[in-house]
Amino acid sequence: MMTDFITENWYIWLIIALGLASIYQAFRTSIKGYMGEKSTAAILSRLNRSKYSIINNLVLETRGQTSQIDHVVVSDFGIFVIEMKNYQGWIFGGEHTEYWTQVIYKWKTQFYSPVRQNRGHVFALKHHLRAFPNVKYIPIIVFSDDATLKITVYSNVTYSSQLLKVIKTYTEVILTEKEKDAIFDRLNAVNMKATYSQRKHIKAIRQKLKAREKSISQSRCPRCGNDLILRTGKFGNFTGCSNFPTCRFTVDQ
Ligand SMILES: [Zn+2]
Q1: Most exposed: 71, 73, 121, 194, by fewest CB within 10 Å?
Q2: How many CB atoms lie within 10 A of CB 126?
Q3: What is residue 12's predicted lDDT score, i.e. its pLDDT?
Q4: How far is the CA of 233 from the centre of ligand 1 (A)?
Q5: Same domain, 141 and 172
Q6: How far is the CA of 55 from the centre of ligand 1 (A)?
Q7: Which residues pair with 245 in a beta bridge?
Q8: Distance 15 CA to ligand 1 centre (A)
Q9: What share of the chain is helix, strand, coil (3-state, %, to 5)?
Q10: Which residues are placed with Cβ below 5 angstroms of ligand 1, an ion?
């Protein structure tokens, strides 16, 4: 009986399988991006805390410009500025090329040079740490081990699995304990991470309200897109969705 059901309805399973595959495909980049950042934070957390202080997701505002830095490690040996790129496929790029190229299967995608991007991050950090002119900045770009790097750069560009090795090649002590603490505190004080996500949240709400008002002004239901009509209820006239009772939207609710 059961086998009959499965064989007779094989196309349903095929549709379900294809559906799941396309959902995965659609969200793969964001799922992987999220996991990539998590794992870089996890890798960094293995560093000795007495020598390395970590800030994940540092948001700096510099003259009206916002920089979002994936990871900053304040250490005895300088400040590591880490940019994680969770890309797959072949990665082509040069030290001075403005755009790099990702090639996956036969698809080519261009993205802004992470070397330049990280240079901007160092610039923002320098601005906020101008009280510490002797600091050494060490930008590192990290690609996931799924990528194949075909690049010609002298900047630090490495794979996730090599990140700690690269960090540990820097052994010359240039910051005192006191300077290190002061820098760490200063960066945490200027971190706009909370405000930044809150602001994005508020913006989203505002946009939603705007869209609602626009829709109502055009006599369209903001919930389902059907016409809004004047209706009569127990307590008098009101404007509601013509798709009632499927949609129970009313204005002023
Ligand atoms: Zn409606």
Answers
A1: 194
A2: 15
A3: 78
A4: 17
A5: yes
A6: 46
A7: none
A8: 30
A9: 40, 30, 25
A10: 221, 223-224, 226, 241, 243, 247, 249
Same structural domain for residues 84 and 178? yes
Which token pair is 22?
Answer: 């396309």
What is the model's pTM? 0.68
Q: Does 234 share its domain with 117?
A: no
Q: Is residue 60 part of a domain?
A: yes
Residues 131-153 as b/e (b if ≥16 CB within 10 A, e otherwise) read ebeebebbbbbbbbeebeeebeb
pLDDT band at 131 (very low <50, low <70, confident <90, very high): very high
Q: Which residue has the tokens 């980049």?
A: 29
In a shared domain, residues 81 and 159: yes
Both 207 and 181 in a single domain? no
Same domain (yes/no): 206, 170: no
Going from the Cα of 229 to the center of ligand 1, the distance in angstroms, rounded, reads 10
In the chain, pLDDT over 70 holds for what percent of residues?
Answer: 91
Ligand 1 centroid distance, CA of 242 (Å): 7
Q: How far is the CA of 249 from the centre of ligand 1 (A)?
A: 5
Instruction: Check whether 24 has a pLDDT greater than 90.
Output: no
Work out the pLDDT band at 32, boundaries 50, 70, 90: low
> What contacts 51, CB < 8 A, 6 or more positions away?
75, 76, 77
Ligand 1 midpoint to CA 232 (Å): 16
Distances in whole angstroms, Cα of residue 78 to Cα of each of 44, 127, 174: 15, 16, 7
Q: Which domain holds residue 213?
A: 198-241
Quick one: tokens of 247?
A: 């949609």
For residue 251, is it within any domain? Answer: no
160, 40 Cβ separation under 8 angstroms? yes
Residue 187 within any structural domain of the chain? yes
